[in-house]
Amino acid sequence: MDRKRWEQIDKVLDEALEREPAQRAALVAQACGGDEELRRAIEDLIAAHEQAGSFGERPAVEVAAPLMAEEPGPFAGREETGASRDHLADRAGRDGRGLPCS
Amino acid sequence: MARPISPDITRLLVRWSNGDSDAEEQLIPLVSGELRRLAHAYMRRQRPGHLLQTTALVHEAYMRLVDARTLDWQSRAHFYGISAKLMREILVEFARAGHAQKRGGGAIPVPLENAELAAKTPGVDLVALDDALNDLAQFDQRKAKIVELRFFGGLSAEETAEVLQVAPVTVTREWGKAKAWLYHTIKASPA
Known about the structure:
heterodimer; A: disordered C terminus; B: about 75% helix
């Protein structure tokens, strides 16, 4: 997507979403002049805005939890044991570069 | 039961945010291991009809792994930013591994109760979302950042606004439009 084109879409989308649903089509048609491609792109996003509902509202860590519990996982061989965790904690504490502000 | 905050994760995140790339190498397996432990605990606690309470525990437990309270505002904002980036990297890798197993036919049998839970949970394809988010960042970095902070980092609209130094109402408006674009793009792309 071209950045300038997107800015154009984004601006009209903002204005349309501030209106009542029944008034949006007229606003979009007027803002787009004869640019049918622009009008379609904006109308698709208005429809998606209505349909998206709870899409993306649950944090990713919750979405992924069933998968993480079942798969061996991509980092399985590298995940830390208790001993290496202690080593890491020790290193983090000894390196003199702790929290920048306490 | 609340777990103590992990000082090693917090310190490594701070080191990474200060430009120490070795810290990322150490963080990924460490945070991944913690997340998997949380996910197992979540699955053990899972009871029919209690989905919302138990899923919230996973997120809250993750938030307890890191402690940004001791940092000044500027460090905290940066810290949340890299924490979200790390979460994105790890969770998307888990999703990719899941896809690869399905394709390879080597899927591990999923216990019935977990399969039922997954079916009841309206999910998001994390791999498709990650790809679409990379595209979005090409022409609208602010919206992509908002999605990374909120969806992958688990931050509220107010926390996201603090990180980006914009008004919460701006975050809410941009989040709505970013979701619309991602939803439309993922729906339109071939499965």
